[in-house]
Specification:
Length: 217
């Protein structure tokens, strides 16, 4: 089978078509990242969410960015930990406001590109962005009480028992229900990320406490 021109050379930013519906859309699973984030930034966005607990709200790395000379990953500044905010502040990053009705602060972390920039080069630059951050609690992953979700779907208080039965059978309109905590989440994927990262943070904190006790004893 004859190779295409792109297959015969390294893929360039000029080969990457823009994705128009990526702004501020919260992915419910890994597959959705591929739908809302352009190829050069997919790995970095996944690492920011899954490994660092940081929400990305917009990204861009496509052929239309060549004219501007840069691409970017925008992160939710308001839900960063104090340590991560300080890291960005010390490096001179400034916040900008996103949103139309409800305004919120983000930081755009930019990287230079030109028509000869390869996708692999952008992936490396994007990984440098990931490395700027430390692990934090993903507080932007929302938890909903039973009452919250009942209200969303107009259930009456006397329908609570039937509602919980449906939730346990995973019939509650797309939300994921944790039977142990009695909390709902936007998806199982986001729930699992929150549980994993919070557990990891707790383990790190306990280790640091034990090390301090050893040093002070």
């Amino acid at each position: 089978m004859e190779q295409t021109e792109i297959e015969q050379r390294e893929k360039l930013i000029s080969d990457v078509e823009p994705i128009d519906d990526s702004a501020a859309k919260l992915p419910m699973n890994e597959e959705q990242i591929k739908e809302i984030v352009e190829e050069p930034l997919q790995d970095a966005v996944l690492d920011l969410i899954k490994e660092k607990g940081i929400r990305t709200v917009s990204t861009s790395a496509n052929k239309n960015d060549i004219e501007n000379g840069y691409g970017y990953i925008a992160v939710d500044y308001e839900n960063l930990s104090q340590n991560n905010k300080r890291k960005l502040d010390k490096q001179g990053y400034k916040t900008v406001e996103y949103g139309q009705k409800d305004r919120y602060k983000v930081v755009e972390l930019k990287f230079q590109i030109n028509k000869n920039t390869t996708v692999e080069e952008i992936k490396k630059e994007a990984q440098k962005i990931v490395n700027k951050f430390e692990l934090q609690e993903p507080n932007w992953i929302k938890e909903y009480s039973v009452e919250d979700v009942m209200e969303i779907f107009s259930y009456k208080p006397e329908e609570r028992e039937n509602f919980l039965k449906e939730a346990k059978e995973e019939k509650s309109s797309g939300y994921y229900f944790n039977q142990e905590t009695q909390k709902f989440y936007d998806s199982k994927w986001l729930h699992d990320i929150k549980m994993k990262l919070n557990k990891k943070i707790k383990e790190i904190t306990n280790t640091e406490i034990n090390e301090n006790l050893v040093h002070t004893s």
